[in-house]
């Protein structure tokens, strides 16, 4: 058994604390108990209270009229109790003062001076914060929030939004902690409730203000309690050893470990190495109830992110965690898989539960790499397959949980994250984790070859689509982010052995982070668009527009699809049907309605080329080349037209001031990314694969002048048609702007629409084009009308036509 060493010394797995001198018949202990601990549940409750504050404020602003009515009813009902409340007022004022004093006396009697000092300081802090918030909410910028909270009426003069004293009392009580003391808790809340009711009748507060005051005090109290920590009530190593003793086993030595490679490295659990009187050793894991919410936010995030059966949701309750851990240990042992035997599950007082496992000597896969033999790798697969044959999964097959015990034998540590009665999907996810982890340590080729030997190509057909970072263990995902080539090489090696070389993709995520950003941006864009529509209605636009210029704009809008078809055809080596390619571009206009502008059309084009028997990598490279060339043309046209517009003598175009700030911000961000090594590595990792596909294809096209002219000509036709279409829309309302100025406006606005993650750039494009036309000298109403007509003809009108085109291509199996 390892002996005690200094906490700061040694590698992972070291002992910590100081050796307590043994006494005759006593247990030798190497331990160091923390005097104060941070409880994850405090942080979780603090975050929840902060979220509740935000929800209440938003609800109050959104439904201020209804809330005001409810407030009036409450005040009216309370007014009928005016006589009773007149008597209760001095009593409740006395109670709200005497209860905190009584709590202070109680703490002094129990000699908990430090906690009392922290409680008083936190109460003062909460009162100061509430007073500062009162001052801030009285500012003009917060007038809407202020009115929603205090429900101001002409005859009533509400001033303070929050009650600093109540906020301080709540924070004070939170630090002291009234859990398990219902008498004190009920007395405090009764005093606070009646105190607030009295002020509500006197029109000094509102229900919403009272609730926010309570939440502010609770949030500050919980935040300070988590930051400062709470006194530890954890059982000591001696208590744990005593609980583990039995008739046939006496613990003689307990050594605290900083990190336990033989047990679950769970957040909040303690690990010990124990020696017994029989000469055996145990790996001991202690689950302290004060850590039961550790990792709850991450588990919730994974549960929301991933589909059912993919996420390994662990319960928040410590009891449920222990029951699941024990069940999986027994199930793995019953399956005949080599895992440490569970020898004891005991409670140590009301605050902890202990699991003791057999200790096995050896080194983990992480420690042995390199140097793992083929026999050991085969035994790892045999152990995992033994679990799967009994429908048990491990779900944490990381290198630190695969123990190599010598003579080519292996042992799987800690199957506590797995599943009993596992589904086919859960079994395949387990295999995918094993494949990815072994690929990191023995290489993709060796991992794939071993998988094909042990499982066969037929079994791996359903596993290859699951080789996605999001489905793997946390440590595996982190390592794969640093070694980005491992997972693609592993997939490629396995696909080469799969019959047909293709597998059906599997969507594992419920919702992607990109989708969340798109949704939020779309809501913001909706507000921008609503602001533009408030300036001019669609009926006004259609009534006031010159229909002759409108027809010209409509024809130019149709020409853009011809330009897009020519551009795509020019960068594809095989001949494409020109008519069907135009239909594909129309179909892309419908897809753009539900995807960001830069992604929808590209996805449709790649799928269209794949249906033309063009390999997926070539199709992606062709579309990538067209996008790169379009980007270069866009920048060149923008520079040329800015020069022309700036050189004009009459009505020179001057971009709005905010554009310069945006450009300066982008330059600063770009320089910051390039200045940091991690930023350069990230940029290289993102750009290198794209350039690796695009550059060879671009060189190939460059050797075919006709194709190159067709692609570049199509890109120019596309941009020029859009510029002329916007110019025609301006003419439709009698506006007069130089074509160079309109070109700058369009090119800037479309670039912004491609960057902003909203469907078709909705909101951002309208705002940018309108601001640009106003800066070019057009009246605000005329600019908004011209932009609305332009977007109607180029974005909204093609949507139903695009839907028809998409259905046509699907029926013809062309997409």
- Average pLDDT across residues? 78
Helicity level: 55-70%
Unreliable residue stretches: 1-15, 19-24, 65-75, 153-158, 260-266
Distance between the termini: 66 Å
Structural class determined from secondary elements? alpha+beta
Work out the number of β strands: 12
β-sheet strand percentage = 5-15%
Shape: flat
**Within the largest sheet, what's the order of strands?**
1-2-5-6-7-9-8
Q: Helix tally?
A: 31
Largest sheet at a glance?
Answer: 7 strands, mixed
Oligomer state equals single chain
CA-based gyration radius = 34 Å
What is the strand and helix layout of this fold?
Blueprint: E1 18-20, E2 28-31, E3 36-37, H1 40-62, H2 64-79, H3 82-109, H4 113-137, H5 143-150, H6 164-176, H7 182-201, H8 207-228, E4 230-231, H9 237-244, E5 251-257, E6 269-276, E7 281-288, H10 296-305, H11 318-334, E8 342-348, E9 352-358, E10 363-364, H12 365-368, H13 374-389, E11 402-406, E12 409-412, H14 424-442, H15 444-454, H16 457-460, H17 474-482, H18 486-497, H19 513-535, H20 538-544, H21 547-570, H22 578-591, H23 597-611, H24 616-647, H25 657-675, H26 677-702, H27 705-732, H28 739-755, H29 764-775, H30 780-796, H31 798-811
Parallel strand pairs: 2-5
Antiparallel strand pairs: 1-2, 3-4, 5-6, 6-7, 7-9, 8-9, 10-11, 11-12
